[in-house]
Design a protein that fits this description.
The complex is a heterodimer. By secondary structure, chain A is an alpha/beta fold. Chain A contains 9 helices and 10 strands. Chain A has a domain of about 170 residues: P-loop containing nucleotide triphosphate hydrolases (Rossmann fold), CATH 3.40.50.300. Chain A has a 6-stranded mixed β-sheet, with helices on both faces. A 4-stranded antiparallel β-sheet of chain A has the order 2-1-4-5, with helices on one face. In chain A, a hairpin with a 2-residue loop joins β4 and β5. In chain A, α3 packs across α4. The longest helix of chain A has 16 residues. Chain B is mostly helical. Chain B has one domain. Helix content of chain B is about 75%, strand content about 0%. A two-stranded antiparallel sheet of chain B has the order 1-2. In chain B, α3 packs parallel to α5, α7 crosses α9 and α13 packs antiparallel against α14. The chains are: A alpha/beta, B mainly alpha. The interface between A and B is medium-sized, with 29 and 20 residues.
């Protein structure tokens, strides 16, 4: 042990003249439950887009399990063990739930059709989607879509799971349900980054929280220390 | 297994017809319909499965036709070699076009493929060796036994190509490749994050699709005994390939076949009974009707009917 799963080193990203991220540095230990918070537009999603490969960073480096992955295409990063869910669910809508899960099983796990189907069933069961396994994903409800997002990320057998607002728009009991799933996944040794607006959920889940504001890390610490931090309060509530 | 028995039956029927005393016009028209089947099937691999609308069908079809005629004029190459070389050139063009344009999404990709048609047409119009703007007359070689006429032989050749194209499309559809392509169509970003190498897969689809279209074009000069750029690079090939896939249904390999046979046969009937100009109108009207009323094509209608009748 000792080696960090993920190291983000002085990462910067600009969109034209706008600086979305400036010199952001992070390090995640294996098995850590990590919370990423910040007001809208603070750069949370840009940061994880850079980590997952949907965007390329302008400067700095992203090191995953000791390897610099900053220039790898997204699918290569997924194959190395970084999986993510999307803030706005992006199911493969013309496929059933099972088939959605089979995509990463076949492309990351390189499983044969029959094996992939079997594994997909197991994952669907684990996520509480068994009775929807054969249903077209375009017919799922919001909470089912969120679960599918997580299930599909899980099917890639990640070492690091990035959950981008998996709970937005869910009711209290549904939030508990998704949280329970994430806790369970973490117990199997998966490092999890949670991006969330629902403070209560992040605070309950995370061992360590980082707050971004305007592309910079403004503070880092335990959930308790974060909520009491005056800078965080200022970023959220305004001066 | 059932599929292969069906395919073998189709081939046997095609050969039997070609040897039977059937009116020559049937083969003349049948060849065109079978070409439409190949084009629609090929178009659907990129357009239907991956969702990348390609308006460049004539460019691929044309490069096949010109490769065929070039080899024939230069070294009197046999038909099989013309087709193989045509398919290779089409695949190569697909690779080149794909490298340049597949990073573009949606409408931008579609527009770029239209440009390829004009580039190819301009090139051929200015190339004297293959006839330039006036075109080139082709003297057919003697027909091979057991066929009575060259058109009959071409009919069987095109039937074989249609079976090959459909088999390939079917394989892609049911394999992991097809699942990857469909993932790209639904959400490219999510596909990439699920481990799908999107650019590679799109390139593959573009190469296969382009190669098949070019293969379908290669025997065209022999069929017409003539080639010239304006009709070879005619955008009506785009409309018919895309129209057949949309009208038949894009989600399954059988959709483009249904669409192409229906449209092709309808066009032949309209051309003979009314006029050649009206058949463009026929496709146009049908396309509008299907896009509005049955966006999933005949296949979609059939599925809906099967679902309601089973309840």
């Amino acid at each position: 042990m000792g080696q960090n799963v993920l190291e983000v080193k002085a990462l910067s990203k600009h969109f034209g003249g706008f600086t979305a991220l400036s010199e952001v540095s992070l390090a995640l230990a294996p098995g850590e439950r990590f919370g990423l918070i910040g007001p809208n537009g603070s750069g949370k999603t840009t940061l994880i887009n850079c980590v997952s490969g949907s965007l390329l960073n302008d400067s700095g480096a992203i090191v995953f399990n000791g390897e610099d992955i900053s220039r790898l295409p997204a699918y290569q990063r997924t194959r190395r063990g970084i999986a993510r869910s999307f803030q706005i669910p992006r199911p493969f809508k013309d496929m059933s739930v099972l088939e959605n899960l089979m995509v990463p099983l076949q492309y990351v796990g390189h499983l044969k059709e029959a094996d992939a189907r079997e594994q997909a069933r197991a994952i669907a069961a684990q996520m509480g989607l068994s009775d929807k396994a054969e249903v077209l994903s375009s017919r799922l409800s919001q909470v089912e879509l969120r679960k599918l997002e997580l299930a599909r990320a899980m099917a890639a057998r990640p070492k690091l799971l990035i959950s981008d607002e998996a709970m937005a728009g869910l009711s209290g009991s549904e939030v508990d349900e998704v949280l329970a799933i994430l806790f369970k996944l973490n117990e199997t040794g998966i490092t999890i980054i949670m991006i969330e607006h629902i403070m209560q959920a992040v605070m309950r889940f995370s061992q360590r929280v980082v707050c971004l504001d305007a592309g910079k890390i403004i503070c880092e610490g335990t959930p308790q220390s974060i909520v009491q931090n005056p800078e965080v309060q200022k970023a959220y509530l305004g001066a | 297994m059932k599929y292969w028995i069906g395919a073998a039956l189709v081939l046997i029927v095609a050969v039997a017809l070609a040897l039977a005393p059937v009116n020559e016009y049937f083969f003349f028209a049948g060849y065109v319909v079978l070409t439409a089947v190949v084009l629609a099937t090929a178009w659907n691999i990129l357009g239907g499965y991956a969702g990348y609308v390609n308006f460049g069908t004539p460019a691929f079809f044309g490069i096949g036709a010109y490769t065929g005629v070039l080899l024939f004029k230069w070294m009197a190459a046999p038909l099989a070699l013309q087709i193989a070389a045509g398919a290779f050139m089409g695949g190569l063009l697909g690779f080149g076009v794909g490298m340049l344009t597949l990073r573009l999404r949606g409408i931008f990709f579609a527009i770029a493929t239209v440009a390829v048609v004009f580039i190819m047409e301009t090139l051929m119009t200015n190339w004297r060796y293959v006839g330039g703007a006036t075109g080139l007359q082709v003297l057919r070689p003697p027909v091979m036994v057991p066929f009575e006429t060259y058109t009959r032989m071409l009919f069987v050749v095109m039937a074989m190509m249609a079976i090959a194209a459909v088999s390939l499309a079917r394989y892609i559809q049911v394999s992991w490749v097809g699942r990857g392509l469909r993932a790209i169509r639904d959400s490219e970003e999510a596909a990439e994050c699920s481990g799908v190498p999107t650019l590679k897969l799109k390139l593959f689809a573009c190469v296969v699709s382009g190669g098949l279209m070019a293969a379908a074009g290669a025997p065209m000069p022999m069929y017409l005994s003539f080639i010239e750029p304006a009709s070879t690079f005619n955008l009506s090939y785009t409309v018919s390939a895309l129209g057949s896939a949309i009208i038949g249904g894009m989600s399954h390999w059988i959709g483009p076949i249904i669409g192409a046979i229906l449209l092709g046969a309808l066009q032949q009937i309209v051309t003979v009974t009314i006029s050649g100009e009206v058949n463009v109108l026929v496709i146009g009207v049908l396309l509008v009707l299907f896009v509005v009323l049955a966006p999933e094509g005949i296949l979609g209608l059939f599925k809906r009917w099967a679902r309601t009748s089973s309840k």
